[in-house]
Design brief:
Elements (H helix, E strand, L loop, with lengths): L2 E4 L1 E4 L2 E8 L17 H25 L6 H13 L3 H4 L1 H9 L3 H17 L4 H4 L2 H15 L16 E4 L4 H9 L4 E4 L7 H9 L3 E3 L13 E5 L4 E4 L3 H22 L15 E6 L4 H7 L5 E5 L13 H14 L5 E4 L10 H4 L14 H6 L1 H14 L5 E5 L5 H20 L10 E5 L2 H5 L1 H7 L2 E4 L1 H9 L17 H17 L3 E3 L10 H6 L4 E4 L1 H12 L3 H13 L3 H13 L1
Parallel strand pairs: 3-4, 4-5, 5-6, 9-10, 9-16, 10-11, 11-12, 12-13, 13-14, 14-15, 15-16
Antiparallel strand pairs: 1-8, 2-6, 3-7, 7-8
Helix pairs in contact: 1-2, 1-4, 1-7, 4-5, 5-7, 8-9, 12-15, 15-16, 18-20, 23-24
Bound molecules: phosphoenolpyruvate and magnesium ion.
């Protein structure tokens, strides 16, 4: 009978192959007291284990081909740095001496202390960093207990689905190079480095399954659906055939779409559409270029501020922005100023104020205007980057005229400061605003009059219009881009842009969902900024659409109030 296991599907794609268990089980650690005369021997044993762990990690790093993206080797470097850090090298030694206990126990106490510190962090991303500590601690423990901790489980991995309790990013990278088709882990969350890595490698994977039934044995053929977060074992021939067919369809589809990479996005009645990419890290630009993006329509700079204890200064930010400008080779980039707050807080600023309702609190431009010591260096860095390429500056979460005037005034004063210092920048750098608060959409004309471009952030616009916290699973079912109120607000922004001859883009997830492409084209949207992995899907729809044919259907949809009818009408529009 089919066994189905669900977890967090962290990257798309279907993988079918034999199970290869890497499971070594969790390590039980017991306390043992050490005689006073032998304490320094125990300390030496611990230090030897740390040294061996370092050697192992360096060996893994050296075995990874140069072509591997830097973010992968970064993970391994992070673990190497942890092995140099006093929190894992000095503190356990103090504990061995203090408690006169075995090295394993001292390491466990220190691990639990660190886990508590991470657990108290507000930032969900930083909270998941305890995984990194665990990976490093486990490596040292395995060495201490004499278990073979090598990361090279053999050559039999090509095409296999690796099963593990957990995988370090280093292990995942190595398994990828050994040809695994996908992996499943019992622990781990969708924000872990291992998950990020799987996504960037395009490796189908599921994490956090909690259990792996023992009936699933090495060599059994299983189906891993990374999109649905579903693993199927002991399947009958018909199911296997069906998934093989789906897998072939997916592979064929992405091969077909690849042919569009160098083709422009243009409707059959000749309207050219700007199809830009959203990027979070400077390394994502590679994916944007591979997908043939016309540029970057949203660079979320806050990721540069996360996962660290200090604030990146002007020079560091400039260097990072210039990396992207250079990689884009003349294509435009819209750099969004910091959108910190709500679910995107960072250590250097979280301690200060815990908002009772973070999404409605001091977030994005509100936080930046209150903390100009944070904002000015960023504005200086963005402006200075504009001397080297077509940089646009974009302000998130604007909600009223006073705020807008204040930002524009601040930008002007920073420009004058740079001029006094004889630092180069583009005086005419286009300045745009994100429309993601209903108040801003309702008064879009005000923003269109004073700004060079607008960009609709549907992720927040939907959250604030429908009063549903976008990170709260309990209300996800209410998150509806086709809610008539949302559609009306989008239309108002597009119309305000057309009226004032100011370009309007959309950079929220809605822009990257091919189910909405025709609707948005019919509403007059001609600038889309989407995740690189969705870009070709959206381009495909654009290149098969005729705007003139969409207008009547879209006008009817915008007049409709029944959500079910709207969904049906949008479906019909896509099938026409
Ligand atoms: C949005 O709100 O749609 C958007 C693009 O910004 P973010 O998702 O970063 O809040
Ligand atoms: Mg937003």
């Amino acid at each position: 009978m089919t066994i189905a296991i669900s977890g967090n599907g962290i990257s798309r794609g279907i993988a079918i192959g034999p199970v290869h268990r890497l499971e070594r089980g969790e390590i039980e650690v017991y306390e043992a007291s050490i005689h006073a005369d032998l304490i320094e021997d125990e300390v030496a044993r611990f230090r030897r284990a740390v040294r061996t762990a370092r050697q192992q990690l360096k060996a893994i790093r050296n075995s990874i081909p140069d072509s591997t993206p830097v973010d992968i080797t970064d993970f391994i470097d992070t673990h190497l740095l942890m092995l140099e850090d006093g929190m894992l090298t000095v503190a356990p030694v103090d504990l061995i001496r203090q408690h006169q206990c075995n090295a394993e126990w001292a390491l466990k106490i220190q691990r639990d202390t660190l886990a508590q510190v991470f657990d108290q962090m507000d930032d969900p991303y930083l909270r998941t960093r305890v995984d990194d500590v665990d990976h490093v601690v486990t490596r040292i423990l395995r060495i201490l207990i004499g278990e073979n901790a090598t990361d090279t489980p053999g050559d039999s991995l090509r095409g296999a689905i690796a099963f593990a309790h957990d995988l370090t990013p280093a292990e995942a990278a190595l398994l990828y190079h050994q040809g695994i088709a996908g992996f499943v882990t019992e622990s781990g969350g969708p924000l872990s480095h291992t998950a990020i890595l799987a996504r960037s490698l395009g490796l189908p994977a599921i994490v956090g399954t909690h259990v792996t039934p023992h009936q699933i044995r090495d060599g059994d053929t299983v189906i891993l659906d990374g999109m649905q977060g579903m693993l199927l074992a002991d399947v009958d021939e018909d199911t296997l055939k069906e998934y093989r067919e789906r897998q072939r369809t997916q592979q064929k589809r992405s091969a077909d779409l690849n042919r569009l990479r160098n083709k422009p996005a243009v409707t059959t009645d000749g309207t050219h559409i700007h199809l830009m990419a959203n990027v979070e890290l400077s390394d994502d630009v590679r994916a944007a270029r591979r997908a043939g993006a016309d540029g970057v329509g949203l660079y979320r700079t806050e990721f540069l501020f996360m996962n660290r204890d200090d604030v990146p200064g002007e020079e560091e930010q400039l260097e990072e922005y210039l990396k992207i400008v250079k990689a884009l080779k003349g294509l435009p980039i819209t750099i969004r100023t910091l959108d910190l707050g709500a679910d995107k807080s960072f250590s250097a600023h979280t301690s200060e104020h815990i908002a009772p309702n973070p999404a409605l609190g001091l977030r994005a431009i509100r936080l930046c205007l209150k903390h100009t010591e944070l904002f000015r260096p960023q504005l200086r860095a963005i402006l200075r980057a504009s001397a080297k390429g077509p940089v646009h500056l974009m302000i998130p979460m604007l909600s009223n005229a006073q705020e807008l005037n204040e930002v524009l005034h601040l930008i002007e004063s920073v420009k004058q400061e740079l001029q006094r210092e004889r630092l180069a920048f583009d005086w005419n750098i286009p300045i745009g605003g994100m429309i993601e608060v209903p108040a801003a959409a309702l008064s879009a004309s005000l923003f269109a009059r004073k700004l060079d471009f607008l960009s609709i952030g549907t992720n927040d616009l939907i959250q604030y219009t429908l009063a549903i916290d976008r990170i709260d699973d309990a209300v996800t079912y209410l998150y509806d881009p086709l809610h008539p109120a949302v559609l009306r607000l989008i239309r108002m922004v597009i119309d305000a842009g057309l009226h004032h001859e100011v370009p309007v883009a959309m950079c929220g997830e809605m822009a990257g969902d091919p189910r909405y492409t025709r609707l948005l084209l019919g509403m007059g949207l001609s600038d889309f900024s989407v995740h690189p992995t969705s870009l070709l899907e959206v381009k495909d729809v654009i290149n098969r659409s005729r705007i003139d044919d969409l207008k009547t259907g879209v006008a009817r949809i915008l007049d409709e109030e029944d959500p079910l009818r709207i969904h049906e009408m949008v479906k019909a529009l896509n099938e026409a």
